[in-house]
Design a protein that fits this description.
By secondary structure, this protein is mainly alpha-helical. 43% of the residues lie in helices and 10% in strands. It has a 3-stranded antiparallel sheet. Strands 1-2 form a two-stranded parallel sheet.
Length: 503
């Protein structure tokens, strides 16, 4: 095995990449980069019946959008390819035959009907059918049949599978980086299928062979693969290979904390479970993505890192470099991690504040046709004033529309609060104060208007509240003097006079 850390993310292209898969890819990436190692993408497409067109490209696009690109993989050769299992199928047959030759595997010719009969028979007796040491000598395989019978079946082209010969009465002592010591009684293990007569391996064989040939040092994968650990470890033993270190990540749970997070949970509660939008090529059903919903990749990565891991401190905001430096597999939890859709919004709000105003302005302009003729620098100035209250780019219009168009109506509750007897006269006088100001800056506006209010002993709110309502249409928004400066003197007076006429 290589002395350098080499990890792999090995998804199947059977649909869009689930958020749990992104978390697995992220933890592999962080571990590799922490140890100056290599992060590999391997496409496990041995099950061609479940292959979905476009799914592989989706996986690549998702990793790139998340800023966790792979070092080796499809179209990024690193001397260990091919990186699609379907392009490696000639490799696996010899290893399956090697296991038969060493007595660690055997041919099984049982028909689907026969196996189904045994399953139903066991169910009727309240038992579970397991194909292993206690019944394999009674079934149709190269253990129970003579060599001549086996050769004849193979020569006739009878369908078969190659099964692993799980040992009897042994105790496996396994170690998982996250879960510690694990003891497995081999008597409860079934003889898993490793290879089929169509020339394709099952996941179990292909995965072990590829990990060995690609010199994978650490296998970091989801908890759902924990039941396969015993078989995989035994396969390494059977081949006489050094096994990598294993780490099984905790499940990502529903927001309720009960059960594994699914697409249905996202649909039901109104949040995506995929990084990018996905259009099913068969049904044309569209599934929402975090990118299209307005999330920043930095927010998603920061959020996902905390699903099952913590740095041991109170700090929650980590950029990618900080995550790499802080990440340790030993600090990953065993227990499932509850998915909190509000928490990822919290992260997104934070990263919204860190975005460049001009970049946000460009995204905002593309989002709203009303801004197509507006100068980008003006939009950026507006964005800088309102983004503190925004979580997503598409929040910006509701927070800033009055910078681009006069209010069409006035908030009823705000109107009752701001418009009193005498308000009209105050606004008329305010226009007279504003009109002669030539250098229309925030400072000059504050000096003239505040000076007038103070010298006449007028209540500050008596002027500022109706002024804000005139400019915004509601009692909200940034400082009124900032609003006046940005929309300009002509527009400011026009909006105040409109309010006066309504009063």
């Amino acid at each position: 095995m290589s002395n350098n850390v080499r990890v792999r993310f090995a998804p199947s292209p059977t649909g869009p990449l689930h958020i749990g898969g992104v978390r697995t890819a992220l933890f592999n990436y962080l571990f590799a980069k922490k140890h100056k190692g290599t992060f590999i993408l391997r496409i496990e497409d041995t099950d061609q019946n479940r292959y979905v067109e476009g799914a592989e490209q989706y996986i690549v696009d998702a990793l790139n959008w998340c800023n966790i690109p792979y070092d080796e993989g499809p179209e990024k050769e690193g001397g260990f390819g091919p990186y699609r299992q379907s392009e490696r199928k000639e490799i696996y047959a010899k290893y399956a035959e090697q296991l038969i030759a060493s007595g660690n595997a055997y041919y099984a010719f049982d028909s689907a009907e026969t196996l189904d009969f045994h399953r139903k028979d066991h169910e009727e007796k309240g038992k579970t059918f397991i194909y292993n040491w206690h019944n394999r000598e009674k079934l149709s395989n190269s253990i129970s049949l003579s060599k001549e019978e086996v050769d004849k079946k193979l020569a006739n082209g009878d369908e078969y599978v190659i099964r692993f010969k799980s040992p009897k009465d042994e105790s496996l002592q396994l170690t998982d980086i996250i879960r510690g010591a694990i003891t497995i009684d081999t008597n409860i293990l079934d003889d898993k299928v490793l290879f089929k007569s169509d020339g394709m391996p099952t996941y179990h064989l292909a995965n072990i062979v590829d990990d060995h040939l690609m010199e994978i040092t650490h296998v970091i994968r989801g908890e759902e693969w924990l039941p396969s650990l015993a078989l995989h470890f035994q396969l390494y033993q059977a081949f006489g290979w050094e096994a990598p270190q294993f780490a099984h990540l905790p499940l990502i749970l529903k927001p309720t904390g009960k059960g594994k997070l699914s697409k249905r949970d996202g649909d039901k509660l109104g949040f995506p479970v995929f990084p990018l939008e996905w259009k099913d090529p068969q049904t044309e059903e569209i599934s929402r993505g975090y990118k299209e919903d307005g999330y920043f990749p930095e927010a998603m990565i920061n959020f996902l890192a905390f699903l099952g891991w913590n740095p041991g401190t109170e700090k929650e905001i980590f950029n990618l470099t900080e995550l790499i430096n802080a990440f340790e597999l030993e600090r990953v939890h065993k227990a499932g991690a509850r998915f909190d859709p509000e928490k990822i919004k919290w992260f997104n709000h934070h990263y919204m504040q860190e975005q460049n105003d001009m970049a946000l302005a460009e995204a905002f302009k593309q989002l709203k046709s009303e801004l197509s003729t507006i100068d980008l620098e003006y939009i950026a100035m507006v964005v800088s004033m309102v983004k503190e209250r925004a979580t997503f780019v598409n929040d910006l219009w509701d927070l800033s529309h009055y910078f681009f168009e006069a209010p069409l109506y006035y908030d009823e509750k705000g109107s009752k609060k701001a418009f009193k007897e005498g308000t009209k006269d105050l606004l008329l006088r305010l226009v007279e104060i504003i009109q002669p100001i030539e250098d229309f800056t925030v400072e000059n506006l504050q000096t003239h208007i505040k000076g007038w209010i103070t010298s006449n002993s007028i209540g500050f709110g008596q002027v500022i509240m109706p002024l804000r309502l005139s400019l915004v249409g509601a009692l909200q928004g940034p400082d009124v003097f900032d609003i006046m400066f940005l929309i300009g003197k002509t527009e400011t007076i026009k909006r105040i006079e409109k309010t006066i006429n309504l009063l």
